[in-house]
């Protein structure tokens, strides 16, 4: 009985010490994590607006080139060129997808898309975060919606983007996410 009490006491002490260390490390690194997340966000925004910057000047360039606008409960970002961008977030096929979408001044033409978080299958659905795939969206228009189509030899219409081969579910989920977020954010922006 005495041995069992020693084991229970040791386990409790070990658990308290371990959790104390984890809580302490979290508190110690929290500010640095927040700064790094802010820098990653600003970097994604600058990339989505196609604004060149040096890594050491991200904060200054962001402050000089980008203006945050709050409208109807949503944050929008406007560049000096007049392009407008916003964050989007929603469900992919296997997990959340979060990113930043930039529109040209006409508010229907995609200037760029940056993916900041995704949990799709690496090598298949994960392709949605690759620059080569996202480049296919540049210049496409929400007229009336973005449509993901099966890849073929024909030229796509101005609102069509080829689906990812082998990841049709992810492609469709991304299409639904972009169109839904665009509709919500455009409504908030123009009203």
Automatic annotation (TrEMBL):
The chain crosses the membrane at residues 7-25. Keywords: Cell inner membrane, Cell membrane, Flavoprotein, FMN, Ion transport, Membrane, NAD, Phosphoprotein, Sodium, Sodium transport, Translocase, Transmembrane, Transmembrane helix, Transport, Ubiquinone. One of its GO terms (biological process) is sodium ion transport. This is FMN-binding domain-containing protein. Pfam families: FMN_bind (PF04205). GO terms for molecular function: FMN binding; oxidoreductase activity, acting on NAD(P)H, quinone or similar compound as acceptor. It comes from the Bacteria. The keyword Ion transport applies. The keyword Cell inner membrane applies. One of its GO terms (cellular component) is membrane. It comes from Petrocella atlantisensis. The lineage of its organism: Bacteria, Bacillati, Bacillota, Clostridia, Lachnospirales.
């Amino acid at each position: 009985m005495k041995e069992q009490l020693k084991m229970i006491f040791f386990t409790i002490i070990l658990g308290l010490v371990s959790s104390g260390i984890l809580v302490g490390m979290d508190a110690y690194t929290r500010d640095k994590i927040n700064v790094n997340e802010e820098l990653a966000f600003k970097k994604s925004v600058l990339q989505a607006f196609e604004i060149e910057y040096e890594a050491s000047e991200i904060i200054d360039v962001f402050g000089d080139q980008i203006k945050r606008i709050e409208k109807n409960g949503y944050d929008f970002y406007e560049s000096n060129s007049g392009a407008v961008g916003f964050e989007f977030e929603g469900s992919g096929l296997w997990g959340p997808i979060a990113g930043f979408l930039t529109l040209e001044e006409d508010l229907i033409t995609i200037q760029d898309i940056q993916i900041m978080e995704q949990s799709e299958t690496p090598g298949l659905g994960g392709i949605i975060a690759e620059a080569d795939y996202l480049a296919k969206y540049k210049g496409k228009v929400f007229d009336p919606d973005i449509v993901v189509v099966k890849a073929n030899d024909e030229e796509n219409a101005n609102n069509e983007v080829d689906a990812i081969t082998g990841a049709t579910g992810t492609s469709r989920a991304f299409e639904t996410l972009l169109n839904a977020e665009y509709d919500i954010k455009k409504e908030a922006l123009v009203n």
